[in-house]
Amino acid sequence: MSADRGAEIRRPTVAYVVSRFPKLTETFVLYELLAVERAGATVELYPLLRERTAIMHPEARPLVARAHFAPFLSPAIIASQVWWLTHHPRRYLGTLATVLRGTIRSPNFLLGAIGIFPKVSTAARRMAEGGVEHVHCHFANHPAMAGFIIRRLVGIPYSFTAHGSDLHVDRTFLCPKVHEASFVIAISDDNRREILATCPGPTAAERVVVLHCGVDTDRFRRDRQPAAPGDELMIMSVGTLHEVKGQAVLVDACKRLARRGIAFRCGLVGEGPDRAALEARIAAAGIGDRVKLLGVRTRQEVAELLASADVLAAPSVPTSGGKREGIPVVLMEAMASEVAVVASRLSGIPELVEDGRSGILVPPGDPDALADVLAGLALDPDRRRALGAAARARVLEGFDQQRNAEILLDRIERSLSTRPAKAATQPEVPVARGTGR
Fold it and tell me: Cis omega before residue 200 (within 30°)?
């Protein structure tokens, strides 16, 4: 479906529910939302939390200005709870009881449900009055819970996208969210298998579909040739400085490259809880002149860094707490930029990176294997060039942002076309005024 269709017919009003906004590292949410708007939908944004950040992607600023931010409690939100108890007490208390019973064994989900219920029930009234036809939630945890609550209270259908740690760490209440959703997006076949293993049966199998995240293939593209033999190999790593991203493995691999006499530079983009530990690790390895922590960067700055890189390393690892990545979006960005990628054989990554053709996969947590691959690529620019060309073709084939956003919107429209014009469970609700933005 082309974006021009949005100008010919009215497309639905969709409310996006996300955990935090504007979050610099969650570009996949920001740019999917914008792509859905370009496809002709009207999008309303309902973050559960407002992220306070000094750096923001320029495209996020207009969305921040019109997003429906709300505190956990306010006089207007308290008044909304009174309204629900007065006008629809059974629906309100029944929904609350279902959520509490379903999350009682998980402190994280129980506290999250208690915390968001007042603001979400207030937002549900605003959505119903504002003509929202569908709610799409990013992440299988608290945002999907919000979708569940909204459907139970006002009958607006919802869907949600399951990414990585939101699915892998704690699947409390996952099955009710799956079974009440119009559909569920898994960003990889690996995630779909995970959901169906937890929630077996024909209902889940029918509703859970795979739709990859995508990237802007016009913005992310190559503008220079890889380094020649003898030049310094430019290695990039992009992501939150956290154990799950595997930066410690990359630092250890760089230590091995230095011992072998390989000429290289390595830049680590991002901030996070592991910064101090990584700084100490780099200093102890004696490679501070070659490995630099570059801090947070905007999307445009990341695009420019990737365009000048020779290799993107994404040595993701599963953490002791159960966190795993889905398919890191930075891999798609690098591949669209025709950069040779080296990544872990983990989760959904092999669904994007075809080992030996559009990139190279290594065992997670193995700095020796990573160093061997990087050393080989340092000496073989022709292979880097071939891997980069195949990588871009792979992204164009199945990971284009605008095309995948249109697929998502088509699915929303199909789900709406099978519903009655007005759900029988949807009460007449006035807008909740003064909830704050």
Answer: no
Question: 136 forms bridges with which residues in the sheet?
Answer: 16, 159
pLDDT at 89 over 90: yes
Structure tokens, 69: 């931010």
> What is the rounded CA–CA span in Å between residue 314 and residue 348?
13
Give dist(CA 44, CA 193) in Å, integer. 31
Tell me, what amino acid is at 46? Answer: Y
Q: Tell me the C-alpha distance between 295 and 353, whole Å.
A: 26
Give CA separation, 61 vs 38, 65, 219, in Å.
17, 6, 19
Cα gap 402→84, rounded to integer Å: 39
At 147, list the tokens.
Answer: 């979708």
Fold for 5-214+400-417, please state it.
Answer: Rossmann fold (3.40.50)
Domain 233-398 fold? Rossmann fold (3.40.50)
- DSSP string covering 27-69: HHHHHHHHHHHHTT-EEEEEEEEE---S---TTHHHHHHH---
Domain boundaries, the chain: 5-214+400-417, 233-398
First-to-last CA distance in the chain? 33
236, containing H or E segment: strand 233-238
Q: 328 and 346 in contact (C-beta within 8 Å)?
A: no
- Identify whether the C-beta of residue 36 lies closer than 8 Å to the C-beta of residue 409: yes
**Contact (CB, 8 A) for 195 and 186:** yes
From 148-152, 183-187, 219-223, 352-356, the region with the lowest mean pLDDT? 219-223
Lowest mean pLDDT among 85-89, 298-302, 343-347: 298-302
